[in-house]
Design goal:
The protein has 419 residues and is an alpha+beta fold. The chain has 17 helices and twelve strands. It is elongated.
């Protein structure tokens, strides 16, 4: 076996340019796959974090009655056991914080034009523990003694032609379905990485909503934030466990995880991963053709050598092994280089990141939940890296089978006489 390895290795060095070219094709394919997987995983995680940290939270709880009519955001189906629910959630090791919210349908007016909005009512201190809205805020957050304060998305404020310090009129139906309108002062604008929220977000406090909407502190949803997980699969498991933890104690409540709330985003994640696998298969198919060509050319260039080896006693299966070793060595070289470059690239992406502004530049982006500015970071996927390395070697090994068998079936006499 050692002799076959030496012969195979010597032949690769003798045709180093052909070996190098085939190895580069394999390396390039694997590097592109690892790079794209890290970037796509980073974009996917960015969009998921956007939705969890800015709008949906990891787990959302409603009453069963509200759940049946949630499309219309009814105000008369509030949670009645919030204190007990929060105490129960505090006992779960993966729960970070909880925040009550209530959403309502309304209309904003600047006295010249109006625009429909979905308003969000929050408890400022608790909300900032679950959602990261304050990180993107320009101006002021809600004050303890402020009256009729409102915070708007930057794009929404631009469309309504209002700025910080301006008054804007908010129309809505109260809890008892009577019409009401009040002037609110714009105290802050937020420009998040979620374009949808920037175009439609309008926030007021429960204190103001109690007067404006006759709300009586009605909370229609309790949002639960979980401790961060690096791996998305672990986060999904945490969400399922917390939902089961809630359902066991409060079976009559309607509990949703981000798996249901962000089903569209998660479906896109799966599709992009499938696309990435498809692209890698194309590159490896090209590499496989190169390996077949390389080993087959080697066979025809070494016909007499094969004949001599057969005459010296090497059996057909040993000739097969020798040529398959050549293909496998090429695969190992290409896979090692490709994975090494991939790991270096992923390290840079996970530590330094890549600015999304460079990717999108001046393009208009309006995709729900997907970040369109800021820095995107890659993600490590060690099982995928190992699998990619082994897959590259396996592809090269399989691609060398045909030419190896071709060499093994040659007639000894014809091979020795071959010129």
């Amino acid at each position: 076996m050692n002799m076959l390895i030496k012969i195979a290795f010597r032949n690769l060095l003798r045709h180093k340019w052909r070996t190098l070219l085939t190895g580069i094709v394999i390396a390039f394919g694997l590097w592109i796959y690892l790079f794209m997987d890290s970037v796509m995983s980073g974009l996917d995680r960015g969009s998921i974090d956007n939705m969890i940290n800015l709008s949906t939270s990891a787990v959302k709880i409603h009453t069963a009655e509200f759940d049946k009519e949630r499309e219309s955001f009814p105000l008369n189906y509030g949670l009645t056991n919030i204190a007990a629910l929060e105490k129960h959630l505090a006992g779960h090791e993966r729960v970070k914080a909880c925040a009550p919210r209530t959403q309502f349908l309304g209309e904003l007016s600047n006295y010249e034009e109006s625009m429909p909005v979905i308003g969000t009512i929050i408890e400022p201190k608790q909300d900032s523990m679950v959602f990261s809205l304050t990180e993107y805020l320009k101006g002021n957050y809600f004050s303890e003694h402020g009256v009729n304060e409102i915070i708007l998305g930057k794009d929404l404020a631009r469309d309504m032609n209002v700025a910080i310090g301006d008054n804007i009129t908010l129309f809505a139906l109260t809890k008892y379905e009577s019409h009401n309108a009040e002037d609110f002062i714009v105290i802050g604008l937020f420009h998040t990485t979620d374009p949808t929220l920037n175009k439609s977000g309008a926030y007021i406090t429960f204190k103001d909503a109690n007067t404006f909407l006759d709300l009586e502190n009605t909370v229609t949803e309790l949002n639960v934030q979980l401790k961060r997980r690096i791996n998305l699969d672990d986060l999904e498991q945490d969400m399922k466990q917390v939902r089961a933890y809630i359902d066991k104690q409060f079976p009559k409540l309607a509990t949703y995880t981000f798996i249901e709330l962000g089903a569209g985003v998660l479906e896109l994640v799966k599709q992009k991963k499938a696309w990435g696998v498809g692209m890698t298969l194309v590159f490896l198919l090209i590499a496989a053709v190169g390996i077949v060509n390389s080993v087959l050319m080697s066979v025809y260039e070494r016909v007499r050598e094969v004949g001599v080896l057969r005459a010296l006693g090497l059996e057909g299966r040993e000739i097969v092994r020798m040529f398959m070793l050549e293909g496998t060595m090429i695969g190992f070289f290409g896979s090692f280089v490709g994975v090494l470059l991939g790991c270096i690239t992923i390290f840079v992406l996970t530590t330094v990141g890549y600015p999304l502004d460079v990717i999108y530049k001046d393009m208009y982006v309006d995709t729900a939940g997907f970040p369109y500015w800021g820095t995107i970071y890659g993600e490590w996927n060690v099982p995928l890296i190992i699998g990619t390395f082994l897959f590259g070697i396996a592809t090269a090994f399989l691609a060398s089978i045909y030419p190896a068998r071709k060499a093994a079936t040659m007639s000894v006499i014809q091979a020795i006489r071959f010129f």
